[in-house]
Amino acid sequence: MKIYMDEMTSKEFGEWVADDKVIIFPIGAVEEHGSHLPLATDSIQPIELAEQVAKRTGAVIIPPLKYGNCASTANFPGTISIRPETLKAIVVDILRELARHGVKNVLIISGHAGRTHIAAIKNAAGDVVATANIKVMALSDYDIVYKFRGMDEFPKDDGHAGMIETSRIMAIRPDLVKEERKGDIPNFPPFMVLRDASRYFPTGAMGYPERAIEDIGKRLNNFLVEEFVKLVEILKGVEE
Amino acid sequence: MKIYMDEMTSKEFGEWVADDKVIIFPIGAVEEHGSHLPLATDSIQPIELAEQVAKRTGAVIIPPLKYGNCASTANFPGTISIRPETLKAIVVDILRELARHGVKNVLIISGHAGRTHIAAIKNAAGDVVATANIKVMALSDYDIVYKFRGMDEFPKDDGHAGMIETSRIMAIRPDLVKEERKGDIPNFPPFMVLRDASRYFPTGAMGYPERAIEDIGKRLNNFLVEEFVKLVEILKGVEE
Amino acid sequence: MKIYMDEMTSKEFGEWVADDKVIIFPIGAVEEHGSHLPLATDSIQPIELAEQVAKRTGAVIIPPLKYGNCASTANFPGTISIRPETLKAIVVDILRELARHGVKNVLIISGHAGRTHIAAIKNAAGDVVATANIKVMALSDYDIVYKFRGMDEFPKDDGHAGMIETSRIMAIRPDLVKEERKGDIPNFPPFMVLRDASRYFPTGAMGYPERAIEDIGKRLNNFLVEEFVKLVEILKGVEE
Amino acid sequence: MKIYMDEMTSKEFGEWVADDKVIIFPIGAVEEHGSHLPLATDSIQPIELAEQVAKRTGAVIIPPLKYGNCASTANFPGTISIRPETLKAIVVDILRELARHGVKNVLIISGHAGRTHIAAIKNAAGDVVATANIKVMALSDYDIVYKFRGMDEFPKDDGHAGMIETSRIMAIRPDLVKEERKGDIPNFPPFMVLRDASRYFPTGAMGYPERAIEDIGKRLNNFLVEEFVKLVEILKGVEE
Amino acid sequence: MKIYMDEMTSKEFGEWVADDKVIIFPIGAVEEHGSHLPLATDSIQPIELAEQVAKRTGAVIIPPLKYGNCASTANFPGTISIRPETLKAIVVDILRELARHGVKNVLIISGHAGRTHIAAIKNAAGDVVATANIKVMALSDYDIVYKFRGMDEFPKDDGHAGMIETSRIMAIRPDLVKEERKGDIPNFPPFMVLRDASRYFPTGAMGYPERAIEDIGKRLNNFLVEEFVKLVEILKGVEE
Amino acid sequence: MKIYMDEMTSKEFGEWVADDKVIIFPIGAVEEHGSHLPLATDSIQPIELAEQVAKRTGAVIIPPLKYGNCASTANFPGTISIRPETLKAIVVDILRELARHGVKNVLIISGHAGRTHIAAIKNAAGDVVATANIKVMALSDYDIVYKFRGMDEFPKDDGHAGMIETSRIMAIRPDLVKEERKGDIPNFPPFMVLRDASRYFPTGAMGYPERAIEDIGKRLNNFLVEEFVKLVEILKGVEE
């Protein structure tokens, strides 16, 4: 059984699609993640997650969109940020096409959790569900995994490229994680719309990447798979 | 001293404006708030707050925008929701004009705290600060006051038109609050982009409006004034 | 009986709305009006008018939009001009929402009478009535009151912030009108699309503000109320 | 000497263009004009006028745009109305290109005088002059010729496809004018944004086409040439 | 019988239009064509062709749009290039209006054959046919006539303002063709999106304009008429 | 040495980027390709090619965009077509970001060769190079490989999902190619903008997929690598 939709032929897809089928749409980013994590960090995580969930649930993955809107890290080398309007447009187009082909359930997993980024995605989905016969669940894996912050070994102020994120990447692509790791506890002026947020976290990481442990990453990743398997069931069951 | 910018003449404004001056821009909404609170609920609160803060700090208020983006309550009678693109456009235009006139500090207070609504405002501000010489602080009063949820008398799951919001309106416009008050503890399917969220809270209120007390509202409102007076100082002091 | 729609609860609005009800939508501006009138001049007049007409006819007022498109005064301090595209977008959104809620009759009163501004409003309304079941009447109070120019005591070339406008504001908000008043009789090059119209009327006023009299303002304002009461009847009666 | 810019070669144009040169841009429409005048009525007039003015002043004409925004006649057969946004876009593009090539003076003559149509043109010009080194004068020939209404033989309520317009076309293209001519004196409900204005003038003409006389048309056309020759001089002389 | 649609009255058009009628829409450009051909070259050809085809087939021509998108010649004096978005918008508007009036068959002939230009036209047509009951055939006359390149007397690398195009203009408007004619065989770097393509063909012509012969032009033009007469039949016969 | 840009850290990218470096941007599609090739066909080819070229030249690949504009196959199951406006927007955003980071040379390889699709990409690139200091080469691998049609064993009318394309996929992902293969030689009505092109090639393939041979595919793929290695050198050498 294929987990990637575009490895099917047209005919295979036409035969596969049915009311109880689920499409997973992973959205990543090309974004600075400290000096120890790759720019692909926010793509690697939701794609790995999507693959595990697909295998467990029979859901099928459409090609990941590996570009997102990344405001606060834009000034670091390598961040490729697309406008929220662009992100909304492409998500709208893709969801409309899925609906046109009879897809009823779509799970969007965004590795990047920036506010404007997520709002663009949800706003796109909102526009589509308002007029098309399709259900969309949209979240970041960090909506779930950041709930651990302040519990057990997870520091309260861990964040972007911090202990949690670094651990998770160590568990998936250890070859891409650098040994030397540093983070800031940024002191952003509250509620300011910053022209250059990078001034407040010169390392490009927030929290405690040096405390990252591959095993914790594995545990978190596994936990996420379990949670998303449940979410897939909820998505299929919701009546709209 | 006038607290509303548009009560000044052109000349008065020209003489008033200076690098250390602060403009407050309240953004409200026309939105269903249960069967006990007026549609203006999200306008009444930030305007009252803006007036108190203006009096305390010498800041000046530009005309409130009393329209916002209200997705989840759109299906109740009376909600007037503008598209996020429209909201972004008008905030961009107004901020650009303020920057053109030499305003350096803008505090946007949004009474409505919906995700897409706030993202549109912050996104607009982000576009303007990227190219114009102006600083923008943008938040909802509920970013601050909801921190009390789960503390003291405030229930953890209080929300839209609930105990806190009802108390605050009772303290400002008691004449507009109905006696009979009911709320739901909505059980939204997680992370779903809902076509019609209203199905999950038929009363149009979330939480415990029946526990609302005018005195609590006064206390919350006063607390907010103190907090926003501090925020105005922070805004003026931030170097960009 | 409430005259402001957003002082109603959702339920009250749902019970009020009916085919023969009329919504009034006042549109103002933040615009330089000489050195003697407040920036709110174009908001003050239509709002006062709307309130009187609402009281007389049972119509209900939605929150005024106090921002407009102001090309010719943009270079004076304090004018906040939104793009015509933005103005069109917000008027479209609001009218669509009213139509969605079953409103059948909308009267838009714009205090500002600039050509591009009015065209944006009428164009928005045209787009909405083409597809939604709603009737829209849209005008500036100055479409009516400027008919007096050249008659009786009203000079033919009176205009922006001139005798008529100053008299009307004196009758509503005398506290906001300065004693010292001067106007120009601008000599615009004909039909030029000017980069900076303000060069041609350095006082920021056109006409004879020094001849303004509160009593004339009262008379004009009362006349307008009578005329708009008739317009509300026409609006309700038009079959579309 | 060529009067049409696009009959020049690139080199000829490059040699011709200079600070004191004037480009005329005629804008027409494809619009119903009663049952006696051709759909090209609003193109024929400004093009004829542009040619005469070009011959008299040395100005050069760029290709006429024979499409405009025609709201009130849209429901009659043959009216091709482009959106005001489209009209604005093409006028912006053309003016920007002219400015790029060093053109300093542009006279736009619109045969159609609809409010939204003219606003789109002026709004486009306003956006361009705000940032480019170019001067634009924009008007309809009817801004001038309708001043005769109510004087001498010209009825006060003559209008679209009426006595004046019919006379003018008779003087230019008599072969395109039908013998049988009828007009209405439409009784539009005041200030209504009409879904279908054609209901109020079933003949598609307003005024007195039956009184049209070729000789009057010639006189009006000649008068317009003289007036526009003066306008060209004003345009060249205005300092911006 | 009139060949230009806008020489009809509204009534005549209403009587003419029927399912088997064909509208021809010529699209030209204002574009540099060497130092020997006029800027109108791409308008002259499709308009002449449209007129001949209309006479032969009973098709009717709507006003030509004499503006197009011209990227590669933008840096030569006189080229007026409109954005592809603008071109798409106006073609969409015009086609929608034609469909609204009951036109079923539209033939778009574009004199300009630039890739982005043609894509904008076809893309516009695609959007309209997707939702309206209308058929559109769209091509450049050069899609047909360039097939001769490399055959008989036609050099393989003839192109813009070259032997073929010059011959054709000589056959239509010999008065506008200069004696002195030069062309380049440009050596564009392959597949580059050039900022300034004009660097590679300083004469502004590609190919062999000096070999142009009026008689060849006549032959080509006649051939095109025959081909387009056949295309009109195909257009009418296609079932969609 | 990494060939994928987003496997670098921010710091690595910052150190890598220099005037002589080349970024490759592969653009694919989710598009029906007969009943024998996967929907990913147009992604698989340019990505494989990009990887080989990157290894040979030291160029670095940014995340492929696996969505394109696919008009003619939209009606087959599985095609996900994004609007050309959306495609343009995302290409513009990505190129602007690359330019912002100091990238000077970008090679876009599009697996899909649809006219509107390619025009959107080139148009996007044109807008960016007009204002940013970056060079862009953009082509489809089929711009090169289709030159073989009509030569040797390659049929003249081979096309979409035909012998050439099938051979190439057999050489890269033989596991995704079905045994049973059929193609049509579609007889499109010439120059029609078709509402549903799929009517003319019911197999969803054009040409001779049954003649496909893995070895030919290898040969074509290798040839393409050589050609693109040369193109990279040209791109680096072009002076703009």
What do these coordinates show?
The structure is a homohexamer of 240-residue chains. The first copy, chain A, is built from seven helices and five strands. Chain A starts with 9 loop residues before the first helix and ends with a helix. Chain A has a single domain (5-237), classed as 3-Layer(aba) Sandwich (Rossmann fold). Chain A has helices spanning 10-16, 41-57, 84-100, 115-129, 141-145, 163-172, 214-237, and strands spanning 22-27, 60-61, 105-110, 135-140, 192-193. Chain A is globular. In chain A, helix 3 (84-100) runs parallel beside helix 4 (115-129). The first copy, chain A, is an alpha/beta fold and 240 residues long. In chain A, strands 2-1-3-4 form a four-stranded parallel sheet, sandwiched between helices. Helices cover 40% and strands 9% of the residues of chain A. The interface between C and D is medium-sized, with 33 and 33 residues. Strand 5 (192-193) of chain A pairs antiparallel with strand 4 (135-140) of chain B.
CATH architecture of chain A: 3-Layer(aba) Sandwich
User: Structurally, how many domains make up the residues of chain A?
Assistant: 1
The pair of chains with the biggest contact is: A-F, 49 and 49 residues
How big is the Rg of chain A? Answer: 18 Å
